[in-house]
Amino acid sequence: MILLFSASSVMAEFNAEMYRQENPASLSPSIFYPDFFKKTDPITLSNLIREFKHRYEFFMGISSESRQKSCFKVQNRINQWLKKFQQAKKIDFKWADDELIFNEESPLFLMIRPGPFKSEDNCKFLSYGDIASDGGVFCRYHGPDPQSEFYQAHAHQFIEARPFFTAYDLTEILIFLPFILVLPVSWLIMKKFLAKG
Ligand SMILES: [Zn+2]
To answer: Where are the domains of the chain?
Structure first.
């Protein structure tokens, strides 16, 4: 019985060995256009409604933190821990994925306190560089935090990968268009008024 129990606990033990080897996968160019933006960028009625709703909620002070923002916080927290481990030479993992980061049996999960969690099911974490020395992690779905080292190092690739004109841009124009139109009209009125004087 004891033997059986110990055998099954060994079976359940997390095998982290593969994370100490070279990362078998390399980062593909598609990571520069995260799936979250692929969903929210196209100019569709539902995306425009969502953009207007965000702004209305923000204006009314009733906006809650977006899933993307909370994902950025998770990424930053994990990366801060990784920095500490790297400085103290406490880890020997070369790369990481969802399993190494979020599996409750994983040695990395157990080192980060409180244990990391995904801000939504779509989140898919990957690592870049060598996480034992200078690498970090980011979410493939939401993309990296624009303030992060990884984004800053590849900013032009992230910007180039997105369409030039998105639902976000159209919403901004629709909101500011009345103000833009008011300017020349008020200028004309002023001109006429001054001419009369
Ligand atoms: Zn995410």
So the answer is: 16-21+30-175
- Between the CA of 121 and the centroid of ligand 1 the distance, in Å, is 8
Q: Is the peptide bond before 184 cis (omega within 30 degrees of 0)?
A: no
pLDDT digits over 102-129, tens only? 999 999 999 999 999 999 999 999 999 9
Helices (H), 63-166: 67-87, 98-102, 107-111, 149-153, 155-161
Distance 7 CA to ligand 1 centre (A): 36
Answer yes or no: are the C-beta atoms of 86 and 115 closer than 8 Å: no
**Please, which residues have CB less than 5 A from ligand 1, an ion?**
71, 123, 139, 141-142
Strand, coil or helix: 96: coil
Q: What is the pTM of this model?
A: 0.81
> Residue 15 pLDDT more than 50?
yes
Rounded to whole angstroms, the Cα distance separating 141 from 66 reads: 14
How much of the chain, in percent, has pLDDT values that exceed 90? Answer: 73
Do residues 55 and 175 touch, judged by C-beta distance below 8 A?
A: yes
Give the model's pLDDT for residue 26. 83
Residues comprising the chain, all counted: 197
